[in-house]
């Protein structure tokens, strides 16, 4: 083991086992390295949050650090009842990352104060008078704040004051960097429409576990959920219903930008998905000219898959896709656009290849990198394309061949990472086509080795999809995501050497009071000793 992996870190810190043990029994994803710090820190009514924007402050980096400090203050003020003023300083960091002098408090320090923290890593160091989070980037500071949050008592999540609480941060010196650059979750807003408020609530849950990507499945047979000015009926008609026949809904371009901006404030990138050639009944119903026979089918509110297809041989199809992808790309600051490509059972194999190859060109023309469900590996994945694996067996030879040839992989094996699979045969919500996925099954796999003959370097990250055929309310979403989502987040962030179900189930149990304080309904799996 390289020094720095938690298992090694925990051993190296055996002179002070409590520091590492406290952190590794409480924080998800478990940090890459935990050593003893300078002593535990306690927040008081006199604590301030100091922002050190680094040597170049004030500049845009400094403003971003300030935003993270304001966010941290917003998290910590309600439960503590403390003022926690945010103050900006230019002071240099003291030895070991703590403050040399100056006011006691929480310090967020941006700059190249530490080596090897990369784009998202951070260091968190406690002393009796300070807890300092340092990072090279604002994203790193933000992730460090999530760790700080989880080191405080669960009551910190309360939105009302919890008096007589000792707001203690245990002694720790944490250095933490992610295993994978892409750590995602997907919301299917097509089968059941989810409001902007529901999506933002999910974003906050994802941020707590250092997930950095929100994939929005915006279009499917049952609904088209984003306004496209050049094809307005997609939303107004195609978005007018959902599974079960409810009234559905759709995001105006302003709504979508609101979601993108909220995600960015939590350091998540939005990946919009426009699915094709299958999963397109809502579009086909909205515009007759998209159909090979020129006839618009009825809207669809059931849960079957594989019955719809865009007309691959029609020019209209590519005019439509070019318009949609141009508009969606322009609204999306992130580098990716997801083209779907799954379950095209009503498209011939040859047409499928024609379609995927053409759509990839359109996405490239609008400046985005293609992500597609792993069936795109049966076409010709463009240079830089990313395939999202949602199989269960791990023996797909076309996926392995594409990975060997340079197509990166996002790992979402359905029998592990799908948050919509039932936990057991008695789970009332969810589906079971990929089997039952209890908490241990969901956690206990390795993204690097799940698909045979894939080079570890081809794995770009992990994603937990939440399909909504059976889900609608916040309570529904929560119950399926918790407690599995934190496990997928840990697979994406923590070093493989830290992977250990027995240790993980202890950390997971410790999260439950936090979820309760946050109003998150969760499945009390018998595999975990909940408090
Ligand atoms: C398969 S996964 C689908 C979705 C369903 C999901 C339900 C994938 C790429 N396609 O259309 O919603 O199963 O688990």
Strand order of the main beta sheet, please?
10-11-14-15-16-17-18-19
> How many structural domains can be distinguished in the coordinates?
2
At the fourth level of CATH, the homologous superfamily of the largest domain is: Glycosidases
Low-confidence spans: pLDDT under 50, at least 5 residues? 1-15, 92-100
> What is the alpha-carbon Rg in Å?
24 Å
Q: How many strand units?
A: 19
Domain Glycoside hydrolase family 20 catalytic: 180-495
Catalytic activity: Hydrolysis of terminal non-reducing N-acetyl-D-hexosamine residues in N-acetyl-beta-D-hexosaminides
EC number: 3.2.1.52
Family: Belongs to the glycosyl hydrolase 20 family.
Question: Please, could you describe this protein's structure?
Answer:
It catalyses: Hydrolysis of terminal non-reducing N-acetyl-D-hexosamine residues in N-acetyl-beta-D-hexosaminides. Belongs to the glycosyl hydrolase 20 family. InterPro entries: Beta_hexosaminidase_sua/sub (IPR025705), GH (IPR017853), Glyco_hydro_20_cat (IPR015883), Hex-like_dom2 (IPR029018), HEX_bac_N (IPR015882). Its EC number is 3.2.1.52. It comes from Actinacidiphila polyblastidii. Residues about 1-15 and about 90-100 have low confidence and may be disordered. α1 (about 5-10) packs antiparallel against α2 and α5 (about 195-210) packs parallel to α7. The protein has an 8-stranded parallel barrel, surrounded by 7 helices. It has a 7-stranded mixed beta sheet with strand order 1-9-6-7-5-3-4. The chain folds into 2 domains: about 5-175, Chitobiase, domain 2 (2-Layer Sandwich), CATH 3.30.379.10; about 180-495, Glycosidases (TIM Barrel), CATH 3.20.20.80. α10 (about 350-365) links the parallel β15 and β16. The protein is an alpha/beta fold and about 525 residues long. The protein starts with 5 loop residues before the first helix and ends in a 13-residue tail after the last helix. It is globular, with a radius of gyration of 24 Å. It has 16 helices and 19 strands. Helices cover about 35% and strands about 15% of the residues. It binds ligand TNX.
